[in-house]
Amino acid sequence: MEEHCDGVRQSFEFLFYEIIKYFTNQTKHLSDGHTTAIHLIENMGYRIGQRSIERLTKNSPRFTSEIEIVKFICRGYWSHLFQKDISTLKTNNADVYVLIDSDFPYLTRIEPSQLYNPSVEMILAFACGLLRGGLSSLGVSCIVNAEIPRIPTCHFTVRVSPRSKTS
């Protein structure tokens, strides 16, 4: 079964890199082509995140608090996407959550010398979109940013919009 999952994961990676190339080529004639490509990739992640969380939680009871939602994202949703949980969750107990994946699958094949490659920014934009879309479908409006302190660790910072507070 694990070999099957690896094959599916590799197929997705190949497809994803082709999508990045496609968006890059389609927007290269624009003055803000790279920014536009990042926006398109993030929106694609957002839509996929919405759909996948809706399917994943279809028969689940409603979450009662924002922290419960974020914990589900760290365990159930992340595990659904990447076959592993988020490594660490930190919060200021107000409106900021930092989800740390110490071995983020999309970065495991990236060399440190490639850290500033434009495609890495698109990889992170897609992952931020997945998180933002999933959280949005669960009633949490937010902004998600990502940073790489060192490969393959990734920190996702979720800033919750005041109007979406569910706790």
Automatic annotation (TrEMBL):
InterPro entries: NO_sig/Golgi_transp_ligand-bd, TRAPP_component, TRAPPC6/Trs33. GO terms for biological process: endoplasmic reticulum to Golgi vesicle-mediated transport. Its main location: Golgi. The lineage of its organism: Eukaryota, Metazoa, Spiralia, Lophotrochozoa, Platyhelminthes. GO terms for cellular component: cis-Golgi network; trans-Golgi network; TRAPP complex. CDD domains: TRAPPC6A_Trs33. Gene3D superfamilies: Trafficking protein particle complex subunit 3. This is Trafficking protein particle complex subunit 6B. It is found in: Golgi apparatus, cis-Golgi network. Belongs to the TRAPP small subunits family. BET3 subfamily. Pfam families: TRAPP.
